[in-house]
Amino acid sequence: MNRNLRTLLPKGIITLLFLSFFLIGGCDVEFGGGGDNNGGGGGGGGDEEETVQGTVVSIIPDQDLEGITVEITVDDGAPETDVTDAGGFFSIEGPLAGDPTIEFFDEDSNSLGAISISVFPTAQVELGNISLENGNVNTLNITEVTFNGDISSNNCTGNSGFMEVDAENDQGQVTVIVQISESTDLIINGDDAVCEDFLLGRNVEVQGEIPSANTVDADRVEID
User: Fold this and answer.
1) φ, ψ for residue 12, nearest 5 deg
2) Terminal CA-CA length for the chain
3) Cα(168)–Cα(97) distance, rounded to whole angstroms?
4) What's the domain range around 129?
5) Which of 25, 64, 143, 186 is the most exposed place for a label (fewest CB within 10 A)?
């Protein structure tokens, strides 16, 4: 037998025995860099971006609804922007959680007004119809929101009461009071449920209106 082959053969056998030992023993052997950790886990973390959208329906003094620049700025960060379409609609996605300022500019970069809004971590916020009048921003609907979070308290019986839900991602955490009423749809895995079925620590999707800071009148609370 070739001398080199006699030398390599034992090394190959040793390598195979080494791998077999770890595989049979239940140990994971990783080659190269690790992949994403998509396994289940408890709380913390959700969608890392939020969405804010609305529709400018009137401007005083009168001007075209299309081409209005909309900027959302969180603290001193760089603004996230969009430009209204022919119907005045805009949608902005980015790291928007907190109490950002939303400002509107005409095509000559003149400010048409600004307001502060509240955005929960993971939230999709629908501002509805907006009017811009002489430097003032008026929201004409109650703000609607959809967000995800973990139940941290449940003070609800049947279909009446409230839950506290922790909305959280890399931008921070906010505890939201989710008010439940007879008109709220409570759903678990596609089936109707009652408050008592929603256990602490479970992750829920909440959809509803924001009547005041960190409070949602829930239309729907759902566990997939």
Assistant:
1) -65, -40
2) 65
3) 10
4) 50-141
5) 25
